[in-house]
Design goal:
Phenylalanyl-tRNA Synthetase, Chain B, domain 3, single chain, alpha+beta, 3 domains, 22 strands
Protein backbone atom coordinates (compact mmCIF):
# COMPACT_ATOMS: atom_id res chain seq x y z
CA UNK A 1 0.00 0.00 0.00
CA UNK A 2 1.46 3.44 -0.93
CA UNK A 3 2.73 5.60 1.95
CA UNK A 4 0.16 8.27 1.05
CA UNK A 5 -2.71 5.80 1.36
CA UNK A 6 -1.33 4.52 4.69
CA UNK A 7 -1.13 8.08 6.03
CA UNK A 8 -4.75 8.76 5.12
CA UNK A 9 -5.85 5.43 6.58
CA UNK A 10 -4.07 6.18 9.88
CA UNK A 11 -6.05 9.41 10.26
CA UNK A 12 -9.30 7.62 9.39
CA UNK A 13 -8.63 4.95 12.04
CA UNK A 14 -7.35 7.40 14.68
CA UNK A 15 -10.43 9.61 14.41
CA UNK A 16 -12.86 6.76 13.65
CA UNK A 17 -14.17 8.49 10.53
CA UNK A 18 -15.62 5.39 8.92
CA UNK A 19 -16.80 1.92 9.94
CA UNK A 20 -16.84 -1.32 7.94
CA UNK A 21 -19.61 -1.79 5.34
CA UNK A 22 -20.45 1.90 5.19
CA UNK A 23 -21.79 3.58 2.08
CA UNK A 24 -19.84 6.74 1.28
CA UNK A 25 -20.64 9.52 -1.19
CA UNK A 26 -17.43 11.16 -2.41
CA UNK A 27 -17.58 14.74 -3.68
CA UNK A 28 -15.46 14.84 -6.85
CA UNK A 29 -14.83 18.16 -8.58
CA UNK A 30 -12.17 16.73 -10.88
CA UNK A 31 -9.30 18.54 -9.14
CA UNK A 32 -6.24 16.72 -7.78
CA UNK A 33 -7.65 16.67 -4.22
CA UNK A 34 -10.91 14.92 -5.05
CA UNK A 35 -9.26 12.59 -7.59
CA UNK A 36 -6.77 11.46 -4.92
CA UNK A 37 -9.56 11.10 -2.35
CA UNK A 38 -11.66 8.84 -4.58
CA UNK A 39 -8.58 6.80 -5.50
CA UNK A 40 -7.49 6.31 -1.86
CA UNK A 41 -10.96 5.36 -0.67
CA UNK A 42 -11.21 2.93 -3.57
CA UNK A 43 -7.93 1.37 -2.35
CA UNK A 44 -9.39 1.00 1.14
CA UNK A 45 -12.85 -0.16 0.01
CA UNK A 46 -12.08 -3.94 -0.13
CA UNK A 47 -10.44 -3.89 3.32
CA UNK A 48 -13.41 -2.14 4.95
CA UNK A 49 -16.15 -3.48 2.64
CA UNK A 50 -17.08 0.06 1.62
CA UNK A 51 -19.56 0.97 -1.10
CA UNK A 52 -18.52 4.19 -2.85
CA UNK A 53 -20.49 6.68 -4.96
CA UNK A 54 -19.00 9.66 -6.80
CA UNK A 55 -20.99 12.91 -6.93
CA UNK A 56 -20.23 15.99 -9.03
CA UNK A 57 -22.19 19.25 -9.14
CA UNK A 58 -21.94 21.45 -12.22
CA UNK A 59 -22.25 25.07 -11.05
CA UNK A 60 -22.99 26.28 -14.59
CA UNK A 61 -20.50 29.13 -14.13
CA UNK A 62 -17.69 28.20 -16.53
CA UNK A 63 -17.75 27.16 -20.17
CA UNK A 64 -15.51 24.18 -19.44
CA UNK A 65 -17.67 22.94 -16.53
CA UNK A 66 -19.29 20.33 -18.77
CA UNK A 67 -15.84 18.91 -19.53
CA UNK A 68 -15.15 18.65 -15.80
CA UNK A 69 -18.33 16.58 -15.35
CA UNK A 70 -17.41 14.30 -18.25
CA UNK A 71 -13.90 13.83 -16.78
CA UNK A 72 -15.32 12.83 -13.39
CA UNK A 73 -17.74 10.35 -14.95
CA UNK A 74 -14.95 8.75 -17.00
CA UNK A 75 -12.57 8.53 -14.03
CA UNK A 76 -15.20 7.04 -11.68
CA UNK A 77 -16.24 4.57 -14.38
CA UNK A 78 -12.62 3.39 -14.68
CA UNK A 79 -12.77 2.48 -10.98
CA UNK A 80 -16.19 0.86 -11.28
CA UNK A 81 -17.80 3.50 -9.06
CA UNK A 82 -21.35 4.78 -9.78
CA UNK A 83 -21.52 8.52 -10.52
CA UNK A 84 -24.17 11.16 -9.93
CA UNK A 85 -23.95 14.47 -11.77
CA UNK A 86 -26.17 17.38 -10.73
CA UNK A 87 -26.67 20.92 -11.99
CA UNK A 88 -27.28 24.15 -10.09
CA UNK A 89 -27.40 27.71 -11.38
CA UNK A 90 -25.19 29.08 -8.65
CA UNK A 91 -25.28 32.62 -10.03
CA UNK A 92 -29.07 32.58 -9.71
CA UNK A 93 -28.94 31.15 -6.17
CA UNK A 94 -26.46 33.90 -5.31
CA UNK A 95 -28.94 36.57 -6.41
CA UNK A 96 -31.97 34.96 -4.77
CA UNK A 97 -30.36 34.47 -1.36
CA UNK A 98 -28.04 37.50 -1.52
CA UNK A 99 -24.90 35.37 -1.11
CA UNK A 100 -21.45 35.56 -2.65
CA UNK A 101 -20.84 33.20 -5.56
CA UNK A 102 -18.44 31.20 -3.35
CA UNK A 103 -20.97 30.79 -0.53
CA UNK A 104 -23.86 29.99 -2.89
CA UNK A 105 -21.72 27.35 -4.59
CA UNK A 106 -20.69 25.83 -1.27
CA UNK A 107 -24.29 25.57 -0.07
CA UNK A 108 -25.46 24.10 -3.37
CA UNK A 109 -22.66 21.48 -3.29
CA UNK A 110 -23.47 20.27 0.20
CA UNK A 111 -27.20 20.18 -0.49
CA UNK A 112 -26.51 18.11 -3.60
CA UNK A 113 -24.16 15.74 -1.75
CA UNK A 114 -26.75 15.24 0.99
CA UNK A 115 -29.39 14.59 -1.65
CA UNK A 116 -27.24 11.86 -3.22
CA UNK A 117 -26.41 10.40 0.20
CA UNK A 118 -30.08 10.19 1.07
CA UNK A 119 -30.86 8.58 -2.27
CA UNK A 120 -28.25 5.80 -1.91
CA UNK A 121 -28.53 5.42 1.88
CA UNK A 122 -24.96 6.59 2.57
CA UNK A 123 -23.77 7.13 6.13
CA UNK A 124 -20.85 9.39 5.19
CA UNK A 125 -20.02 12.13 2.70
CA UNK A 126 -16.30 12.51 2.01
CA UNK A 127 -14.88 15.78 0.66
CA UNK A 128 -11.33 16.62 -0.38
CA UNK A 129 -10.19 19.42 1.93
CA UNK A 130 -6.48 19.08 2.73
CA UNK A 131 -3.96 20.68 5.12
CA UNK A 132 -3.45 23.66 2.82
CA UNK A 133 -7.18 24.39 2.85
CA UNK A 134 -7.07 24.30 6.65
CA UNK A 135 -4.23 26.82 6.77
CA UNK A 136 -6.02 29.16 4.35
CA UNK A 137 -9.27 28.89 6.33
CA UNK A 138 -7.65 29.70 9.68
CA UNK A 139 -5.83 32.73 8.25
CA UNK A 140 -8.96 33.85 6.36
CA UNK A 141 -11.04 33.69 9.55
CA UNK A 142 -8.34 35.45 11.58
CA UNK A 143 -8.10 38.34 9.11
CA UNK A 144 -11.84 38.96 8.95
CA UNK A 145 -12.24 38.65 12.73
CA UNK A 146 -13.25 35.47 14.54
CA UNK A 147 -13.33 33.56 17.83
CA UNK A 148 -12.01 30.12 18.80
CA UNK A 149 -14.36 28.28 16.42
CA UNK A 150 -12.92 30.20 13.47
CA UNK A 151 -9.31 29.61 14.56
CA UNK A 152 -10.12 25.89 14.94
CA UNK A 153 -10.74 25.93 11.19
CA UNK A 154 -12.36 23.14 9.17
CA UNK A 155 -13.59 20.24 11.35
CA UNK A 156 -12.33 16.78 10.47
CA UNK A 157 -15.90 15.54 10.86
CA UNK A 158 -19.16 17.47 11.00
CA UNK A 159 -22.05 15.03 11.38
CA UNK A 160 -21.97 12.92 8.19
CA UNK A 161 -19.33 15.06 6.46
CA UNK A 162 -15.75 13.72 6.74
CA UNK A 163 -12.45 15.13 5.44
CA UNK A 164 -9.90 12.29 5.29
CA UNK A 165 -7.24 14.40 3.54
CA UNK A 166 -6.90 17.10 6.23
CA UNK A 167 -3.67 15.45 7.37
CA UNK A 168 -1.89 15.68 4.00
CA UNK A 169 -0.59 18.61 1.98
CA UNK A 170 -1.37 19.74 -1.55
CA UNK A 171 2.16 18.73 -2.58
CA UNK A 172 1.68 15.19 -1.20
CA UNK A 173 -1.63 14.92 -3.06
CA UNK A 174 -0.18 15.93 -6.41
CA UNK A 175 2.86 13.69 -5.89
CA UNK A 176 0.51 10.74 -5.22
CA UNK A 177 -1.50 11.50 -8.36
CA UNK A 178 1.68 11.69 -10.45
CA UNK A 179 2.98 8.40 -9.06
CA UNK A 180 -0.34 6.75 -9.89
CA UNK A 181 -0.49 8.32 -13.33
CA UNK A 182 -3.73 10.07 -12.39
CA UNK A 183 -4.76 13.14 -14.32
CA UNK A 184 -6.84 15.97 -12.90
CA UNK A 185 -8.64 19.11 -13.95
CA UNK A 186 -7.45 22.60 -13.03
CA UNK A 187 -10.03 25.28 -12.21
CA UNK A 188 -8.58 28.56 -13.50
CA UNK A 189 -10.59 30.52 -10.94
CA UNK A 190 -8.40 29.02 -8.18
CA UNK A 191 -5.45 30.97 -9.59
CA UNK A 192 -7.07 34.40 -9.78
CA UNK A 193 -6.51 36.86 -6.93
CA UNK A 194 -10.03 38.23 -7.17
CA UNK A 195 -11.09 36.26 -4.09
CA UNK A 196 -9.53 36.85 -0.66
CA UNK A 197 -8.92 33.14 -0.04
CA UNK A 198 -6.98 32.90 -3.31
CA UNK A 199 -4.89 35.96 -2.37
CA UNK A 200 -3.97 34.23 0.87
CA UNK A 201 -2.77 31.19 -1.09
CA UNK A 202 -1.08 32.97 -3.98
CA UNK A 203 0.33 36.09 -2.28
CA UNK A 204 0.25 36.07 1.54
CA UNK A 205 1.50 32.55 2.36
CA UNK A 206 4.54 32.73 0.03
CA UNK A 207 5.38 36.11 1.60
CA UNK A 208 5.12 34.70 5.15
CA UNK A 209 7.23 31.68 4.22
CA UNK A 210 9.96 33.85 2.69
CA UNK A 211 10.23 36.66 5.24
CA UNK A 212 8.84 35.30 8.54
CA UNK A 213 8.68 31.51 8.95
CA UNK A 214 9.41 28.82 6.34
CA UNK A 215 7.22 26.47 8.42
CA UNK A 216 4.24 28.84 8.69
CA UNK A 217 1.77 26.16 7.53
CA UNK A 218 2.91 23.73 10.25
CA UNK A 219 2.60 26.44 12.93
CA UNK A 220 -0.92 27.39 11.82
CA UNK A 221 -2.02 23.73 11.73
CA UNK A 222 -0.72 23.17 15.27
CA UNK A 223 -2.59 26.24 16.48
CA UNK A 224 -5.80 25.05 14.82
CA UNK A 225 -5.45 21.61 16.46
CA UNK A 226 -4.90 23.10 19.94
CA UNK A 227 -7.78 25.57 19.66
CA UNK A 228 -10.08 22.93 18.18
CA UNK A 229 -9.81 20.71 21.26
CA UNK A 230 -10.18 23.62 23.68
CA UNK A 231 -13.13 24.99 21.70
CA UNK A 232 -14.87 21.61 21.84
CA UNK A 233 -14.39 21.43 25.61
CA UNK A 234 -15.75 24.93 26.21
CA UNK A 235 -18.73 24.29 23.94
CA UNK A 236 -19.63 21.16 25.93
CA UNK A 237 -19.42 23.14 29.16
CA UNK A 238 -21.67 25.87 27.75
CA UNK A 239 -24.25 23.30 26.65
CA UNK A 240 -24.22 21.77 30.11
CA UNK A 241 -24.73 25.17 31.77
CA UNK A 242 -27.55 26.08 29.38
CA UNK A 243 -29.37 22.84 30.23
CA UNK A 244 -28.78 23.39 33.94
CA UNK A 245 -29.64 27.10 34.13
CA UNK A 246 -32.15 27.55 31.30
CA UNK A 247 -35.86 27.88 31.96
CA UNK A 248 -38.68 27.80 29.40
CA UNK A 249 -40.62 31.05 29.08
CA UNK A 250 -44.27 31.55 28.16
CA UNK A 251 -43.58 31.57 24.40
CA UNK A 252 -41.03 28.76 24.41
CA UNK A 253 -37.99 31.03 24.76
CA UNK A 254 -35.04 30.03 26.95
CA UNK A 255 -34.60 32.32 29.96
CA UNK A 256 -31.40 32.50 31.99
CA UNK A 257 -31.15 33.77 35.60
CA UNK A 258 -29.27 37.08 35.50
CA UNK A 259 -27.40 36.80 38.82
CA UNK A 260 -26.13 33.27 38.10
CA UNK A 261 -25.02 34.30 34.61
CA UNK A 262 -23.09 37.35 35.81
CA UNK A 263 -21.24 35.22 38.39
CA UNK A 264 -19.63 33.17 35.62
CA UNK A 265 -16.18 33.93 34.09
CA UNK A 266 -16.30 36.28 31.09
CA UNK A 267 -15.18 33.53 28.67
CA UNK A 268 -18.11 31.34 29.77
CA UNK A 269 -20.55 34.27 29.58
CA UNK A 270 -19.61 34.84 25.94
CA UNK A 271 -20.02 31.13 25.18
CA UNK A 272 -23.43 31.00 26.82
CA UNK A 273 -24.59 34.12 24.98
CA UNK A 274 -23.50 32.66 21.65
CA UNK A 275 -25.32 29.42 22.38
CA UNK A 276 -28.44 31.21 23.65
CA UNK A 277 -28.70 33.38 20.54
CA UNK A 278 -28.30 30.34 18.31
CA UNK A 279 -30.82 28.25 20.27
CA UNK A 280 -33.36 31.07 20.20
CA UNK A 281 -33.52 30.80 16.40
CA UNK A 282 -32.09 34.29 15.87
CA UNK A 283 -28.90 32.92 14.33
CA UNK A 284 -25.38 34.32 14.55
CA UNK A 285 -25.23 36.01 11.14
CA UNK A 286 -23.51 39.41 11.50
CA UNK A 287 -23.25 38.98 15.30
CA UNK A 288 -19.68 39.87 16.25
CA UNK A 289 -17.40 40.72 19.15
CA UNK A 290 -18.91 44.17 19.68
CA UNK A 291 -22.42 42.71 20.00
CA UNK A 292 -21.36 40.22 22.69
CA UNK A 293 -19.51 42.99 24.52
CA UNK A 294 -22.60 45.25 24.36
CA UNK A 295 -24.87 42.43 25.54
CA UNK A 296 -22.76 41.80 28.63
CA UNK A 297 -22.59 45.53 29.42
CA UNK A 298 -26.38 45.72 29.04
CA UNK A 299 -26.87 42.79 31.43
CA UNK A 300 -24.53 44.36 33.99
CA UNK A 301 -26.46 47.63 34.10
CA UNK A 302 -28.24 48.42 37.34
CA UNK A 303 -31.67 48.80 35.74
CA UNK A 304 -33.69 45.60 36.14
CA UNK A 305 -35.67 45.78 32.87
CA UNK A 306 -34.96 46.74 29.29
CA UNK A 307 -34.17 45.53 25.79
CA UNK A 308 -31.23 45.68 23.42
CA UNK A 309 -31.27 45.38 19.62
CA UNK A 310 -29.25 42.73 17.79
CA UNK A 311 -28.67 42.37 14.00
CA UNK A 312 -31.64 41.61 11.71
CA UNK A 313 -34.29 42.84 14.10
CA UNK A 314 -33.56 40.35 16.89
CA UNK A 315 -33.56 41.61 20.48
CA UNK A 316 -32.36 40.75 23.96
CA UNK A 317 -34.69 41.39 26.89
CA UNK A 318 -34.18 41.37 30.63
CA UNK A 319 -36.74 41.46 33.42
CA UNK A 320 -37.85 39.64 36.58
CA UNK A 321 -34.28 38.56 37.26
CA UNK A 322 -33.90 36.78 33.90
CA UNK A 323 -32.87 37.57 30.33
CA UNK A 324 -33.69 36.01 26.96
CA UNK A 325 -33.39 36.55 23.20
CA UNK A 326 -36.39 37.07 20.92
CA UNK A 327 -36.33 36.73 17.13
CA UNK A 328 -37.50 39.35 14.65
CA UNK A 329 -40.50 37.23 13.68
CA UNK A 330 -41.84 37.32 17.23
CA UNK A 331 -41.46 41.08 17.50
CA UNK A 332 -43.01 41.89 14.14
CA UNK A 333 -46.03 39.64 14.47
CA UNK A 334 -49.35 41.53 14.25
CA UNK A 335 -51.64 41.31 17.23
CA UNK A 336 -54.45 39.83 15.14
CA UNK A 337 -53.41 37.83 12.07
CA UNK A 338 -55.90 37.82 9.23
CA UNK A 339 -55.98 34.87 6.87
CA UNK A 340 -53.86 35.45 3.74
CA UNK A 341 -54.44 33.71 0.42
CA UNK A 342 -52.81 34.26 -3.00
CA UNK A 343 -53.02 32.26 -6.23
CA UNK A 344 -49.63 31.25 -7.62
CA UNK A 345 -48.69 32.33 -11.14
CA UNK A 346 -47.44 29.26 -13.03
CA UNK A 347 -45.07 29.99 -14.60
CA UNK A 348 -44.31 33.36 -13.06
CA UNK A 349 -43.49 35.24 -9.87
CA UNK A 350 -45.95 35.77 -7.02
CA UNK A 351 -45.21 38.26 -4.25
CA UNK A 352 -46.83 37.90 -0.82
CA UNK A 353 -45.57 40.99 1.04
CA UNK A 354 -47.67 40.25 4.13
CA UNK A 355 -45.54 37.13 4.71
CA UNK A 356 -42.32 38.62 3.40
CA UNK A 357 -41.98 35.97 0.70
CA UNK A 358 -41.81 35.82 -3.10
CA UNK A 359 -42.36 32.51 -4.92
CA UNK A 360 -41.11 31.87 -8.44
CA UNK A 361 -42.66 29.00 -10.43
CA UNK A 362 -40.82 27.41 -13.37
CA UNK A 363 -41.71 24.46 -15.62
CA UNK A 364 -38.68 22.42 -16.67
CA UNK A 365 -38.22 19.22 -18.70
CA UNK A 366 -37.17 16.32 -16.50
CA UNK A 367 -33.78 14.85 -17.42
CA UNK A 368 -31.57 12.12 -16.06
CA UNK A 369 -29.42 13.42 -13.19
CA UNK A 370 -31.82 16.31 -12.65
CA UNK A 371 -30.65 18.07 -9.51
CA UNK A 372 -33.31 18.04 -6.82
CA UNK A 373 -32.87 21.31 -4.91
CA UNK A 374 -33.15 21.51 -1.11
CA UNK A 375 -36.74 21.30 0.10
CA UNK A 376 -36.59 24.22 2.54
CA UNK A 377 -36.76 27.09 0.02
CA UNK A 378 -36.88 25.17 -3.27
CA UNK A 379 -39.03 22.18 -4.14
CA UNK A 380 -39.92 20.03 -7.18
CA UNK A 381 -43.23 18.45 -8.20
CA UNK A 382 -44.35 16.35 -11.15
CA UNK A 383 -46.02 19.08 -13.20
CA UNK A 384 -48.37 16.68 -15.00
CA UNK A 385 -49.61 15.11 -11.76
CA UNK A 386 -49.97 18.03 -9.38
CA UNK A 387 -53.48 19.47 -9.32
CA UNK A 388 -53.68 23.10 -10.40
CA UNK A 389 -54.23 25.89 -9.57
CA UNK A 390 -51.89 26.28 -6.59
CA UNK A 391 -52.36 28.93 -3.94
CA UNK A 392 -50.43 30.20 -0.93
CA UNK A 393 -52.20 30.74 2.36
CA UNK A 394 -51.56 30.74 6.10
CA UNK A 395 -52.65 27.99 8.46
CA UNK A 396 -56.24 27.21 9.30
CA UNK A 397 -57.77 25.31 12.18
CA UNK A 398 -57.64 21.57 11.59
CA UNK A 399 -54.94 21.68 8.90
CA UNK A 400 -53.23 18.34 8.21
CA UNK A 401 -50.34 17.33 5.93
CA UNK A 402 -49.45 14.09 4.18
CA UNK A 403 -45.67 13.49 4.27
CA UNK A 404 -43.45 10.80 2.74
CA UNK A 405 -43.31 7.53 4.68
CA UNK A 406 -46.37 8.39 6.77
CA UNK A 407 -49.64 6.50 6.56
CA UNK A 408 -52.48 8.94 6.77
CA UNK A 409 -52.00 12.61 7.64
CA UNK A 410 -50.31 14.51 10.45
CA UNK A 411 -51.75 17.54 12.19
CA UNK A 412 -49.96 20.69 11.03
CA UNK A 413 -49.83 21.83 14.65
CA UNK A 414 -47.88 18.66 15.55
CA UNK A 415 -45.51 19.16 12.61
CA UNK A 416 -44.83 22.74 13.70
CA UNK A 417 -44.01 21.47 17.20
CA UNK A 418 -41.64 18.80 15.80
CA UNK A 419 -39.90 21.43 13.67
CA UNK A 420 -39.59 23.65 16.78
CA UNK A 421 -41.38 26.59 15.13
CA UNK A 422 -42.27 29.02 17.95
CA UNK A 423 -46.05 29.38 18.43
CA UNK A 424 -45.78 33.13 17.86
CA UNK A 425 -44.39 32.54 14.33
CA UNK A 426 -46.75 29.82 13.07
CA UNK A 427 -49.35 32.21 11.64
CA UNK A 428 -46.62 33.65 9.39
CA UNK A 429 -45.53 30.37 7.74
CA UNK A 430 -46.61 30.24 4.05
CA UNK A 431 -48.38 27.05 2.92
CA UNK A 432 -48.64 26.02 -0.76
CA UNK A 433 -51.99 24.34 -1.40
CA UNK A 434 -53.03 21.98 -4.22
CA UNK A 435 -56.68 20.93 -4.39
CA UNK A 436 -57.10 21.59 -0.67
CA UNK A 437 -53.98 19.61 0.26
CA UNK A 438 -50.85 21.14 1.81
CA UNK A 439 -48.06 20.23 -0.59
CA UNK A 440 -45.32 22.49 0.83
CA UNK A 441 -44.69 24.16 4.19
CA UNK A 442 -42.40 26.86 2.80
CA UNK A 443 -39.04 26.94 4.50
CA UNK A 444 -39.60 23.68 6.36
CA UNK A 445 -41.19 20.61 4.75
CA UNK A 446 -42.47 19.19 1.46
CA UNK A 447 -45.70 17.23 1.37
CA UNK A 448 -46.11 13.89 -0.45
CA UNK A 449 -48.15 15.24 -3.37
CA UNK A 450 -46.96 14.70 -6.98
CA UNK A 451 -43.44 13.34 -6.33
CA UNK A 452 -40.90 13.34 -9.16
CA UNK A 453 -40.31 9.78 -10.42
CA UNK A 454 -38.56 8.10 -13.35
CA UNK A 455 -41.83 8.49 -15.31
CA UNK A 456 -41.89 12.28 -14.83
CA UNK A 457 -41.72 14.32 -18.07
CA UNK A 458 -42.00 17.87 -16.72
CA UNK A 459 -40.96 19.30 -13.35
CA UNK A 460 -42.60 22.21 -11.55
CA UNK A 461 -39.82 24.01 -9.65
CA UNK A 462 -40.90 26.43 -6.93
CA UNK A 463 -38.32 28.78 -5.41
CA UNK A 464 -39.18 30.88 -2.37
CA UNK A 465 -37.19 34.02 -1.61
CA UNK A 466 -37.88 35.11 1.93
CA UNK A 467 -37.09 38.62 3.13
CA UNK A 468 -36.83 39.78 6.72
CA UNK A 469 -37.33 43.21 8.18
CA UNK A 470 -34.26 44.76 9.80
Amino acid sequence: MPAFTEKVEQLIKKKNLISPEMRIVVGVSGGADSVALLSVLNDLAPKYALKLYAAHLNHLLRREAGEDAAFVQKFARSLGIPTFVGYARVSKLSRIYKLSIEEAGRRARYQFLRHVAKKVGAQRIAVGHHAGDQVETVIFNFLRGTGPAGIAGIPLQNKEIIRPLLGVTKEEIEEFCCERGLKWRTDATNLTTEYMRNRIRVELLPYLRRFFNPQVERVVLQLADIISEEDRFLEEQARYLLRKMGQKGGEGEIRLPLTDFLSLPLAVQRRLLRLLIRKSGAGLKDVGYQHFDSCISFLREARTEGEMHLPHGNRMFKGSGHFWVSTAGKQDKPAAMQEIKRDLKIPGITEIPELGVTIQAEIKPYQENFYFPPENYQVCFDYDKIKLPLCVRTRQKGDRIRTFGLKGKKKLKKLFAELKIPPSERDLVPLVISDGEICWVVGYKRGAAAPVTEDTRRVLLLTASKSFKD
